[in-house]
Amino acid sequence: MFQIRNVVCNYTLPLHIDLRKLALNSNNVTFDRGRGVLLKQKRKPNCYVKIYSSGKVYIVGCKSEADCMLAARTIARQVQKTMNKEKEVVRIRNYKVCNVLATCKMPFGIKIEEALLAQHYPAQSQYEPELSVGLVWRSQDPKATLRIHTTGSITVTGASSESDVMRSIEMIYPIVRKFRCAMRHRPELKHKRTTRKRPASSLVYGTSAKRAVVPGSGIIGNKMYFSDEDDIYDEDDLFDDED
């Protein structure tokens, strides 16, 4: 089953729109006078609307075609009231769904390496691991672009309707099923990484601890002694000389 992430549509209103007047009579709007465009954020349904003075309207961010049509009718009605065209007939013209973005998760991993899926279908697929982690599949009927990942995730873009998204997934499923593999997930660390503690310093409050003298020949500080001279050098005298 797929999930719709974004639906983009555009249409035209047959009248000139005073963007400044529309901005003063609306909320959640941003009027860019230099570019001649008004940006509006709707809450029900949640989407973004871009309105031009020529009557061109773009809607982005809807989760379904029904929400996109509802937002288009709401904006058209608001523009009609603001422009005092209530007695005239204002209809939506050239309504078109430009793009439908959807995602789908397969219950298995997919081998998209060049020696497997990309090599068997060179005309429809394009795999450039240096540029993108996924394989790009361009479908002609229905017209859509699919991005296939090794984890089994498929992203569909460029479709003109929800039915085209469903058809494209039904078309690609038997193909990717031939190259299925085990699920590819990043292994989780079961054990926490243990940090090594540094040994406690031998210096305590600026005083150095005395080193034990091992019987036999050796060096203490700047003095060398031998085993037959142990009775000559006293341990306390050696450490006093170091200080």
Quaternary state reads single chain
Q: Please state the average pLDDT score.
A: 80
Shape: flat
What do we call the CATH homologous superfamily of the domain at 8-97? Answer: TATA-Binding Protein
Relative helix content: 10-25%
- Count of helices? 5
What share of residues are in beta strands?
A: 25-35%
Radius of gyration: 37 Å
Distance between the termini: 80 Å
Structural class: alpha+beta
The total count of strands amounts to 16
Short description:
Pfam families: TBP. This protein is α+β, with helices and mostly antiparallel strands and 243 residues long.
Question: Top keywords for this entry?
Answer:
243 residues, alpha+beta, TATA-Binding Protein, 10-stranded antiparallel beta sheet, 22% helix, TBP-like
Task: Explain what the structure shows.
Helices cover 22% and strands 34% of the residues. It has 243 residues and is α+β, with helices and mostly antiparallel strands. Among the domains are: 8-97, TATA-Binding Protein (2-Layer Sandwich), CATH 3.30.310; 106-181, TATA-Binding Protein (2-Layer Sandwich), CATH 3.30.310.10. The strands form 4 sheets. A 10-stranded antiparallel beta sheet has the order 2-3-4-5-1-6-11-10-9-8. Strands 7-12 form a two-stranded antiparallel ribbon. Strands 13-14 form a two-stranded antiparallel ribbon. A hairpin with a 4-residue loop joins strand 2 (29-32) and strand 3 (37-43). It is flat, with a radius of gyration of 37 Å. Mean pLDDT is 80; it is low at 202-209 and 229-233. It holds the Pfam family TBP. Its main location: nucleus. It is found in: Nucleus.
